[in-house]
Design a protein that fits this description.
CATH architecture: 3-Layer(aba) Sandwich
Number of domains: 1
CATH superfamily: Response regulator
CATH topology: Rossmann fold
Distance between the termini: 11 Å
Oligomer: single chain
CATH class: Alpha Beta
């Protein structure tokens, strides 16, 4: 079973997305704060994908991306953002970005695009 972490301080968005992915057969967890996401990253089984809102509670996702790189280096990251150029300027690694507002279908497609082709899994 694939594992997904959703991090968004708009908890209803994260909860709805987690329900969507659960219906698709994923094990999905969500966090509404950086501290909650850090706990999940440190204590959970490795995630296949993390979907992280760029701005969480006044800070950026930079620290969470770094933590995933250290603790779960195989986890792929998708950023979401309703903000403009800030994310482009601060995203020097070129992490994929899905602009808000998005549909669950576009989120699902963006997550699937991060995974290796089915024949390689």
């Amino acid at each position: 079973m694939r594992r997904l972490l959703l991090v968004d301080d708009e908890s209803e968005i994260a909860k709805l997305a987690a329900e969507y992915f659960t219906a698709l057969g994923w094990e999905a967890k969500y966090a509404a704060s950086v501290a909650e996401a850090e706990r999940l990253i440190d204590k959970s089984e490795p995630f296949d994908v993390a979907v992280i809102d760029w701005v969480i509670g006044g800070s950026t996702a930079r620290g969470l991306i770094d933590r995933l790189d250290t603790r779960q280096p195989r986890c792929r990251v998708l950023l979401t953002s309703g903000h403009g150029v800030d994310i482009l300027r601060d995203n020097s690694e070129g992490v994929p970005v899905l602009r808000k507002p998005y549909t669950l279908r576009s989120l699902g497609g963006s997550v699937e695009a991060l995974l290796p082709p089915r024949s390689a899994r």
